[in-house]
Amino acid sequence: MKAVCATDLSAASEATIESETCLECLGRIGIEEIHLVTVIPSNVYAGMPGIDFEKRRKRALKRYKKVITDHGFDVETHVVRGTPHRRINGIAETIGASLTIIGSRGKSPLENRVIGSTARNLSRSTTKPLLVNRIERETEDPDVLRQHLFQRMLFATDFSDNAEQAFEWFTQLQHATKEAHLVHVQTPKDPGLPEGEDPEEELANLAATLEDLGIETTYEVRSGDPSDEILAAEAEFEPTTTLVGSRGHSRLRRLLLGSVSEDIIVRANGNVLLVPPGQR
């Protein structure tokens, strides 16, 4: 399996790449080849006064490549120019990546308003599973907030086809995941199941599947606003990563700022693994 790891050469990106535990977790789920991608914005060019971008970039990528290679991965580097999320998606498609990884400093009042953040734009447009690796905020030398990427998983489901596809990721995660908590949020706007079917029973069936994989599993049905209730479950269970599907019923739906998956990307305390449609 191949993964794209997007880096802007910031301290946050460095924390994602240089975490030994995170690299070990990627190895456990079958990642063998990592492609480091750096996108140079169109308004940044060589020779800008005061900063030697090219020298800094080459030095950082060389260091990152050595760290990842030393952990047994094959590594390729890509330096491209353009709009970050479009170029990252393009490379992921070209190489046939199974996963795109990006570090994020996490929620803040400003980030909740800024629509142009790379992580948010990727969550809207990616056709590959996206892992948002949460990094410490407000420190000059940040570290990842969750050392183990997949050890404790929170899985949020509305029983849609896309949620089912997201659940299938547990077959990849079984060698890295020890515990899982499944949650379904009932809401009048989106009942999720045909009338007469029991969400508790459906969750119990999913839990039994994970138990067969050797993953200790609990589950619950909640009621209320989906985003708020999923985040409340995250606060209680304290997972290393929340796994959620992005419905993508239509192009318009994917662009709506109020979508549950995008809300989780922005507001979650820990990592988020977002699985878009068509990933079966």
Indicate how many domains the architecture comprises: 2
Q: Which regions have little confidence, pLDDT < 50, spanning 5+ residues?
A: 106-116, 248-258
Radius of gyration: 19 Å
- Biggest sheet descriptor: 10 strands, mixed
If you consult CATH, what is the topology of the largest domain? Rossmann fold
Order of helical and strand elements: EHHEHEHEHEEHHEHEHEHHE
Jot down its keywords:
single chain; 280 residues; alpha/beta; Rossmann fold; 2 domains; ten-stranded mixed β-sheet
What does this structure look like?
This protein is an alpha/beta fold. The chain has two domains: 2-134, Rossmann fold (3-Layer(aba) Sandwich); 152-275, HUPs (Rossmann fold), CATH 3.40.50. The protein is built from eleven helices and ten strands. The protein has helices spanning 11-17, 20-28, 53-70, 84-95, 118-125, 161-167, 170-173, 199-212, 226-237, 251-255, 260-267, and strands at 2-6, 33-40, 74-81, 99-104, 130-134, 152-156, 179-186, 216-223, 241-245, 271-275. Strands 3-2-1-4-5-10-9-6-7-8 form a ten-stranded mixed beta sheet, sandwiched between helices. Helix 3 links the parallel strand 2 and strand 3. Helix 4 (84-95) packs across helix 5 (118-125). The longest helix is centred in the first third of the chain and has 18 residues, at 53-70.
